[in-house]
Amino acid sequence: MKKITYIRFIVLGLVILFATLLNKTAPFGQVKGLSDSAKNKAIRGLVIPHHGLAGGLITESIELLRQNRNDYQILVIIGPNHFYKESYTLTSSTKLQDTAVDSEFIEKLKEMFPKTVLDQDIVGAEHAVTTAASYFTEYFPKSRIIPLVISPYFTEESLRTIADFLSQNLPRNTLYVASVDFSHNLLTDESLVNNEESIKTIRSFDFPTLFKYTDSHMDSPASVALVMLVMQNLKTTNWTTVESLHSGLILNDPTIQGTSYVTGIFY
Fold this sequence. Notes:
The chain is an alpha/beta fold. Helices cover 43% and strands 18% of the residues. It contains ten helices and nine strands. 43% of the residues are buried. It holds the Pfam family Memo.
């Protein structure tokens, strides 16, 4: 038993060393820059975490948008409903503290999808929305935000209807953000393997696999799926992974059963 534990600890140490070497040119929280294929392209979709520990990853991702000279009229922030998981619908709000919300569009959304719940308290307490909004309002103060808190019970078919409405009724210079944490309560090595599986699924637009995922891969497949469906409509289906990390790497503690993060862009 001790031998197995020792071997596992060595493996975890190698994982951290490998991840450090991969990011050697850009320490955590510093911008690495985009690959040549993504430079000077209009970025329409973004995947970021909402865990406070990963704030550096959010900053890094937004800096990449600015580096690529992107500016946005509208920011659609999509995240899971952490506190009302039994909800079967979308939740949004026409008001959000210290945030410019596109209330007119949200009212249109409510007309189109009458089961949509407008609740400022739910949205205001949902850190998947508020964490992202706090960063974006600093970097894009002129943009208006559309917060969407999404039920885990949506199917690809029902999400496609919402994606069609969004892509047909919002301006072209809209950024769609999936505010999602990835694997939960796993060690670093397991989490990074699952991250690679999730990245492959996202890159290939493999919706059947995506909708089978549980917390061992990500906390809101529906949020990621909605962004992916909009990207298909906009024909911006190129994906670039920015980061794949685990909280153990950030804290330099390989024994943590923590949370993993994936950041990436669609263009």
